[in-house]
Amino acid sequence: MISLGSYLAISFALFICGILVMIARKNIIAMLLGIELILNASALNFAAYTKFANNNLDGHIVSLFIIVIAAAEAAVGLGIVIRFFQLRESIHIDDAATLQN
Amino acid sequence: MFTNTLFLLSAALTVGGALAVVYSQNLMHACIYLLASLFGVSGLYACIGADFLAATQLVVYAGGVVILMLFAIMLTGGSGNKINRYGLEKIAAMGNKKTYFFAGFAGILTSLVLLKIIANILKAQPNTVLSANEPTVAKLGTLLATDHILAFEISSVLLLGALVGAAIISRPRKERND
Q: Taking a contact as any Cβ pair under 8 Å apart, which residues of chain B between 9 and 48 contact chain A?
């Protein structure tokens, strides 16, 4: 039951859900949720290949760095969203169409 | 037996949470469903013997990122943000029929491409003998301090940059008189 195929299928489902969220939502924070799903799918793939294809732990290292980068991305992205909300009083993605007033 | 049960529960939690993130109309609920999905991914890590990864996933994602997201949602008007104090109707905007149509189309297209690739991978996969699960923390520490030291240092610089950048970007607005 626990095989490479099942892990790839779960990661595939996560990735498709992330893509759907990123395209369908018009809310900036909801799009960030989709990005988190996609990053999780890739990290899961790395860990699964470490277990089922080769047994050195390099895949775990890459997954760790993916988690670190996702945390940094969430911090900066949410800072940008909060700043945008202070300026425009909106978190709709269509309002974010200009670089300056 | 126990591992199989854990795997099934984690897989159901992961996929169900991700689907609920897609179809929830309430932003706060979507964030909580994302928390469930991340818990499931942590369980999946535990099933293949990645103990340190499972713990890190719980600490960083469930304890950090999702809480940060919840803070950001509440700072930008909360979940019932159709009628918030600014009276703006555009904020809710969790997607409409048109965006869901395009998203479904793109999702089906991506699924077809990915399924084509995954089928090839599964056809060619080597039948290696699976090793038993061992503790990985000591090995991961050694690898991080020897083979991957450059990436480790760069990620520390990245985190410092993210910290300073987030503080500078979201600082309160300064009035300029010029």
A: 11, 14-15, 18-19, 21-22, 27, 30-31, 34, 37-38, 41, 44-45, 47-48
